[in-house]
Design brief:
This protein folds into three domains: 223 residues, FAD/NAD(P)-binding domain, CATH 3.50.50.60; 114 residues, FAD/NAD(P)-binding domain, CATH 3.50.50; 105 residues, 2-Layer Sandwich (Enolase-like, domain 1), CATH 3.30.390.30. The protein contains 13 helices and 22 strands. The chain is globular, with a radius of gyration of 24 Å. The protein is an alpha/beta fold. The protein binds flavin-adenine dinucleotide (FAD) and nicotinamide-adenine-dinucleotide (NAD). Nicotinamide-adenine-dinucleotide binds next to helix 6, strand 12 and strand 18.
Length: 482
Amino acid sequence: MSEKYDVLVIGAGPAGYVSAIRCAQLGLKTACVDNWLDKDGKHVLGGTCLNVGCIPSKSLLESSELYARCQNELSDHGITVKDIGLELSTMMQRKNKIIEDLTLGIEGLFKSNKVEWIKGRGRLLANRRVEVSSEDKQEIYQAENIIIATGSSSVEIPGAPQDNQFIVDSTGALEFDEVPGRLGVIGAGVIGLELGSVWRRLGSEVVIIEAQDVFLPIADEKIARAGKAEFKKQGLDIRLNARLMSAEVKKTDTGNKVEVIYQDAKGDHNESFDKLIVAVGRQPNSDNVFDDEAEVLLDERGCVHVNEQCETSVPGVYAIGDLVRGPMLAHKGSEEGIMVAELIAGNHAEVNYDLIPSVIYTHPEIAWVGKNEQQLKTAGENYKSGMFPFAASGRARALGVTTGMVKILSHAETDRILGVHVFGPQASEIIAQAVIAMEMGASSEDIGLTVFAHPTLSESLHEAALAVNNNAIHVANKKIKK
Ligand code: FAD
Ligand code: NAD
């Protein structure tokens, strides 16, 4: 048995590495075990988010958007550019360099905060002991507190067996070495829309096959409707109520193709693609992490069962991030990691699960926080709403992105803001202002009384707040007071 730690974290994604750093900052002797290997077989920190998730996808979204704008919009600005070309390998190298810099950055943070990095696969045993296996050895570590943050992996479906070349998950879809002519995507969720958009902008013909009959049911209905219309205009062919029956790689005269059969209300349909991305959700990495003697309870989906403080069924053992209930989002995991570190150090801490923002990084972006209109209706909540279209924003016009709107829902009597929904340019940044306002218990009147700089996209939040009480200036109000 090696030395004893105050805290041992298993998993160095955004939940685990943030938690480990905060524990060390609080004076706790901390180690973090992680088994992520990069393409060259080298151990790297950062987990899914940095290596194959948030960061590489946003890098490619940025590059592909720039390419699309250069092709489609520069002439509107009177800018003439000859020969806009695409060097996909350079785009991928840029993405890989961003990943490398950021993962090395975490390595530096571990060093400066004195977090010990243990490379290998961790397995929780009884009595807060962790067995770590690496290529050449197996060791047992002991800690007062254990934080499990082993994250999640893509769900595979039997109808579409992945070969990592033609039928791939999101990781494979961040690595194509040429732009697929025809690209199929299974699932019109967050990954389907983001990665479908990347390859569409780079020139693929994209067909998205989605099992549900409603588009993006997690978003506010109005926003989802506007999003669907815009994505269709951009060339994403989204087929709802469509069940994948089979996907098979077949040799044809024009090379290997993925032959897909899917079914909708009209019957079976055949499609032929150069590549197929399977993006039907993610599942917690809870297999082989717990020895039977560890006695940690899992729920029916394989998530570790935890309370609001992320405590598992075993005292001194916590679980955070994608491994536990709640949205599978990096910032949710990081906040849980910080909360657990503070609790272990004896401080008060909590996460406000009602105010975790969601963002879909399409163009324009979709972002929301709090309740949407369908949820308020179902709950029988008495609410009022205000909306402001980006078409009426001077800044959005100057940017040339006038699609979408800001929508604010507030309580009919108290005016306290219950939800904010944005579809438009930089929605990811605008939503942060809504989160702050809601954390402070603001009313829409409070936002209406706040001064916003002109001309900014944020003014649309201001105007939507004014619209809740029929006071908007730059758009017609529902009722004009006489
Ligand atoms: P992970 O990041 O999955 O990290 C878990 C770590 O634990 C990994 O390093 C893994 O190797 C390690 N591990 C697992 N088992 C063991 C073991 N037994 N022993 C040792 N180590 C182990 N979220 C956002 O908020 N914004 C986004 O824009 C966004 N974009 C995404 C794009 C894509 C393509 C994908 C796939 C995901 C995206 N997500 C995004 C989701 C986000 O990546 C996850 O929510 C986040 O990474 C979860 O963090 P985590 O620390 O819980 O787990
Ligand atoms: P998702 O849950 O967002 O979407 C999956 C979609 O696939 C759903 O619409 C579902 O109805 C559909 N589906 C499921 N089975 C199907 C089948 N057999 N045939 C056709 N459609 C099917 O999952 P995802 O897009 O894989 O993303 C996984 C998670 O990663 C997300 O839940 C999110 O938490 C996280 N993520 C976040 C971001 C972000 O924050 N911007 C980006 C990417 C991923």
